[in-house]
Amino acid sequence: MARSPTTSDVFNAVAEVQRRRILELLTEGEKSVNQIAEALQFRQPQASKHLNVLKEVGLVTMRSDAQQRLYRLNPEGIKQIYDWSKTFERHWNERIDRLEAYLEELQREEQRKDTDEQP
Amino acid sequence: MARSPTTSDVFNAVAEVQRRRILELLTEGEKSVNQIAEALQFRQPQASKHLNVLKEVGLVTMRSDAQQRLYRLNPEGIKQIYDWSKTFERHWNERIDRLEAYLEELQREEQRKDTDEQP
DNA sequence: GACATATATTCTATTATAAGAATATACTTG
DNA sequence: CAAGTATATTCTTATAATAGAATATATGTC
Fold first, then answer.
1. By the number of CB atoms within 10 A of the CB, which of A32, B47, B88, B94 ranks highest?
2. How far is the CA of B66 from the C1' of D30 (A)?
3. Beta bridge partners of A60
């Protein structure tokens, strides 16, 4: 079995760094294919291909204006990734909690040492 | 040029749905390779291979206990994905704001119609 | 050391890119 | 309709991955 197609879901679509760059660029607002290609330094066909993948998984929407195709970020798609990653949130928070608890413990030890040295 | 290796970063690593399932399972706590394989219904070699990818990108850590290899979730890796997706947060919030504004506008229109019908 | 348990590695077959080059399509304007 | 502009599609090449099967490695026990 081969790897899942890039169009199978948002996770596969954003695995490609160039497509993440497109999404980041589109936070500035709607852009044409050529604007995207120029800004990110790739050739027009590559821009079209990547945009098509993003469109298929719903990460962008497209509208036509004369010859131009204007692509716009569809944030709902990225929210899927956000929601999934957020389900792990308590795990890294717990880690930070444990680290903070450890640091506080160190401080208490330091203080105890200081007061012990007093007499 | 081919697709980036699955070990190139966390985004490529979690593109595979089976690896996401492993991460979700590991939220329950540290587990051995066989426990993971059994819980997720894949064969031992596949479990080992997926776990190795996750380890290489830092999404899990491993420790040895006799013959067993115990894998544990490393949430920092998922936080990278969370942080990236979170930079788009204002976009889906704005969308919801616009939707709410639109719904309120509809309601006001309904009310205006109702009062117009009164006389 | 022989045997059992737990895990990792290797090999194969199938599938799927991603970039580049060339070409095709769609729309606009003179 | 011819020429120009903007974008999409096709074809090629090189690379990579996933599952399965078979095998190798490491550790524990008798």
1. B47
2. 17
3. A73
- Give CA–CA dist B18/B45, Å, rounded: 13
DSSP B59: S
> Does the CB of B14 have a partner CB in chain A at under 8 Å?
yes
Q: What is the pLDDT along chain B (119 residues), one digit of tens a residue?
A: 889 999 999 999 999 999 999 999 999 999 999 999 999 999 999 999 999 999 999 999 999 999 999 999 999 999 999 999 999 999 998 766 667 667 777 776 666 555 555 44
Question: Which of the nucleotides in strand D have any atom less than 7 Å away from a protein CB atom?
Answer: 4-10, 14-23, 26-28
Query: Which of A77, A86, A70, A63 has its CA nearest to residue A14?
Result: A77
Q: Is A49 on the interface with B (CB under 8 A)?
A: no
Give which of A83, A86, A74, A82 is closest to A27, Cα–Cα.
Answer: A74
* Residue B89 at interface with chain A, using a CB cutoff of 8 Å: yes
3-state helix, strand, coil in chain B (%, to 5): 65, 10, 25
**Which pairing describes strands B31-32 and B68-73: parallel, antiparallel, or unpaired?**
antiparallel
CA atoms within 13 A on the CB side of A50: 22
Q: What is the dihedral of CA A94, B54, A2, A76, to 10 degrees?
A: 30
